[in-house]
Amino acid sequence: MTSGSVTARLPAPARFVLGLGLLLAFAAAGQALTGALGLPLPGSVVGLVLLWAALGLKLVRLHWIMDAADGLLGVLGLLFIPATVGFLQFLSAGAAWGLWLLVMTAGLLVGAGAAGLIASRLLRPEDA
Amino acid sequence: MIWVMLTLLAFAAGVLAQLRLRSPLANPTLIGTLIVAAALLLTRVTYDTYLHDVQPLSALLTPAVVALAVPLYRLRALLARQWQALLLGGLSGTALGVGVDTLLARALHLSPDAQRALHTAPATSPVALQLAPFTHAPPALAATLAVLSGLIGALILPALLTALRVRHPLARGIAIGSVAHGVGTARAREEGEQAGAASSIGMGLAALTVTLIVALLA
User: Fold this and answer.
1) Is the same domain home to B126 and B172?
2) Is B105 on the interface with A (CB under 8 A)?
3) DSSP 8-state code for residue B1
4) Which residues form the domain of B110?
5) Cα B67 to the chain's mean position, in Å?
């Protein structure tokens, strides 16, 4: 840690702005990369991997982005509302929704149930 | 911007309800969604108009997903030690989720559009959107079913995992993220940083797994 670095002395609001700017930069980089390579992956997930690599390589310091990351992640559920409200476009499907929800629920229960049990079995003991 | 205001207030009302009611159905995303949907229906404002108005809010979703790198980096030692459990748990959860969604939709004779859209429900909605040309699903329906799948997962999966005695935060997180991606990860974070980080790994793996399955089968 470069504790004496000038960025550590930035006031919290300025650090938030710096962090948000960097997160947007990595989001843009992820989107540019998926576009250029024609990857069928969301730019945001590619940006996540790029930021993770940059943190590991110490190109980006954790304290630059921590406040902005924690702030955005604290309201992650809010940022999905514009997408979830999209069900309004398909209200005309009417009764078909019952079966759609049934299928999704079955997939969720089987998938997550199996994943949870498999992962529990494979976890290594904490103190080994 | 009036719809940005309403969405923010509806979400805040959802967080307050969650603090008050302590019920799994008192999920801030669910409550926010229902309030906004009711307001749109009452005022006869179309979804397209709404989506255009809340663009500033939607624009923050991409950097928020990028921000998931922070808990992954903070917990890197723990996650590296448990990579087998996370990788195999996540892959099997997503693959089974896609399998059940596909086969059950076929068995129940759902409409071809719904069947195709359900293939990608275990992946985060931008993936579902990008894979729609390959699955021949209507893109908006694929994205909507994906995000709703995440929302339903956020509501029911914590109780399922508790009933199955899956207690370790990493196992709970990877299970939720492998099928309930974004909204599920928001819910898993409520259980703590480990569950949240494992869930975001599950979400990332699910994006890759579903893409791979569609690429192989399309």
Assistant:
1) yes
2) yes
3) -
4) 62-217
5) 16
- The answer to whether residues B25 and B84 belong to one domain is no
C-beta separation of B146 from B128 below 8 A: yes
* Maximum pairwise Cα distance, chain B: 53
Q: Are the C-beta atoms of residues A43 and A34 closer than 8 Å to each other? A: yes
Nearest CA of chain A to the CA of B22: how many Å? 17
Predicted-assembly ipTM surpassing the 0.90 threshold: yes
| pLDDT over 90, % of chain B | 82
Collapsed DSSP state (helix, strand, coil) of residue B36: helix
**Is the domain of B115 the same as that of B184?**
yes
Could you tell me how many residues make up chain A? 128
Residue A78 has pLDDT above 60, yes or no: yes
> CB under 8 Å, gap of 24 or more: what pairs does A45-50 form?
A45/B65, A45/B124, A45/B127, A45/B203, A45/B204, A45/B207, A47/B62, A47/B63, A47/B65, A47/B66, A48/B65, A48/B66, A48/B68, A48/B69, A48/B72, A48/B200, A48/B204, A49/B69, A49/B204, A50/A26
Do B155 and B81 have their domain in common? yes
DSSP A10: S
Residue A47: list chain B partners with CB under 8 A.
62-63, 65-66
Count of other CB atoms within 10 angstroms of residue A59: 9
Chains A, B: CB contacts within 8 A come to 334
- Could you tell me if B205 lies within 8 Å of chain A, comparing CB atoms? no
**Total count of domains within chain B:** 2
B31-88 confidence digits (pLDDT tens): 999 999 999 999 999 999 999 999 999 899 899 989 989 988 999 999 999 999 999 9
